[in-house]
Design brief:
CATH class of the largest domain: Alpha Beta
Order of helices and strands: EEHEEHEHHHHEHHEEEEEEHEH
GO molecular function, one term: 2 iron, 2 sulfur cluster binding
Number of helices: 10
InterPro entries: 2Fe-2S-bd, 2Fe-2S-bd_dom_sf, 2Fe-2S_ferredoxin-like_sf, 2Fe-2S_ferredoxin-type, 2Fe2S_fd_BS, Beta-grasp_dom_sf, CO_DH_gsu, Diverse_Oxidoreductases
Keywords: 2Fe-2S, Iron, Iron-sulfur, Metal-binding, Oxidoreductase
Largest sheet: 8 strands, mixed
Strand content: 25-35%
Protein name: 2Fe-2S iron-sulfur cluster binding domain-containing protein
Pfam family, one: COXG
Length: about 400
């Protein structure tokens, strides 16, 4: 696979990313650097929602390739936090009701700032013409035009390319994690790190990743649990929607089926798994992509089996650290207070299925073909309501 190294300055900080030649600038900004203020709309350079400054000029990041931008200075909406002109525009947008849903607003603000700098005081008709490349479905543009006109009053034109905004600079020398590669580019195996709860070491979490710790209590002796967990292909059947399709030493391939109401996605990808027999611990990493929705996922899970605090000879405790990152359409499900409850609910289902599998009894929920997130959300909401009612 061909890859390139793109060296950029993003919001004042040097950044180096490894990407495919076809990788778009907006992918690096959103999925690698977690600068999600850059919104992606049409992905054809028409709507203007993804507009950023590249070398001082507004540019559509959805039709800009990473390689073409190498060596350039990029400023996203997050980079203007301390810029006086952008502060005036944000205040004027608010007072003139120049935004409703807000999806077009980041690109609209970047364009508005360029208009004021480049043209100085500007008439409403000219503002409308200049904004014709930024589409808004909510406001009718009246508030937008009024806000920009107000901020432009009394200003003289400046050459935007020579203007240096007061950017909040990130740590110098930052190296961004690579843009996710296609599923067949498996990650190399890494040694097991002692990162499960109870140890001092913790996983190295990259920006944009989420993390949760979970303790599972299972009424099965530790040795039996450990032997079961050593068979990754078999144990994957206990997780709804998951399937390991191939295992070759430490490398593995698999898929995960997820049902989100009417949207069904199937992640296919590769990963690695390593075990520490002495510590009864393991670590698995993987990444995958759903070609239908364009969403991608990366994940790491580390676990350790130890005797339960009570009835140590007949029961076990599995300590798990799960880290993940979602991008694309599914990234919206990575937010919100319900996510942790959903993960815990899923872990409970996994524990019950694992215990049933070891004991040779039927799984409590029967055979589950896919992960129904809406069903999980509903069960979490019902559980919360019952707790609130004191039942």
């Amino acid at each position: 696979m061909n890859t390139l190294v793109a060296e950029l300055t993003v919001n004042g900080a040097p950044v180096k990313v490894i990407a495919e030649p076809r990788t778009q600038l907006c992918e690096i900004l959103r999925e690698t650097l977690n600068l999600t203020g850059t919104h992606v709309g049409c992905e054809q350079g028409v709507c203007g929602a993804c507009t950023v400054l590249v070398d001082g000029k507004p540019q559509r990041s959805c039709v800009s390739y990473a390689g073409d931008c190498s060596g350039s200075s990029v400023i996203t909406i997050e980079g203007f936090d301390e810029d006086p002109l952008m502060a005036e525009l944000r205040d004027a947008f608010s007072r003139h009701h120049a935004l409703q849903c807000g999806y077009c607003t980041p690109g609209m603000l970047v364009t508005a700032r360029d208009i004021v700098l480049r043209l100085g005081e500007v008439a409403p008709g000219t503002i409308r013409e200049e904004l014709s490349g930024n589409l808004c479905r909510c406001t009718g543009y009246v508030g937008l035009v009024e806000a920009i006109e107000e901020v432009s009053k009394g200003r003289k034109p400046q050459r935007a390319a020579t203007f240096t905004p007061a950017v909040k600079v990130a740590a110098a020398g930052q190296t961004a994690p690579p843009v996710p590669l296609p599923a067949h580019a498996s990650s190399p195996a890494r040694p097991v790190r002692s990162a499960v709860p109870g140890n001092a070491a913790q996983p190295d979490l990259r920006k944009g990743w989420s993390r949760i710790e979970q303790h599972l209590e299972i009424a099965v002796p530790p040795d039996q649990i450990w032997q079961k967990l050593r068979d990754i292909r078999d144990v994957s059947k206990c997780l709804p929607g998951a399937e390991i399709t191939e295992v070759d030493g430490s490398a593995l391939s698999g898929r995960m089926n997820v049902a989100l109401g009417p949207m069904k996605v199937a992640f296919s990808g590769d990963g690695t798994v390593v075990f520490d027999e002495a510590a009864r611990s393991g670590r698995m990493t993987g990444r995958g992509r759903d070609t239908g929705s364009g969403s991608s996922a990366e994940g790491e899970v580390e676990w350790r089996v130890e005797p339960a605090e009570k009835n140590a000879d007949a029961a076990s405790r599995i300590l798990v650290v799960l880290s993940w990152r979602l991008s694309g359409r599914l990234a919206q499900f990575n937010r919100g207070g319900l996510v942790q409850d959903v993960i815990q609910r899923l872990a409970s289902i996994f524990a019950a299925n694992l215990e049933a599998s070891i004991k040779g009894t039927p799984a409590p929920a029967g055979e589950i073909k896919s992960l129904g997130v809406l069903d999980l959300l509903w069960s979490v909401l019902v559980s919360r309501w019952r707790r609130w009612r004191g039942k």
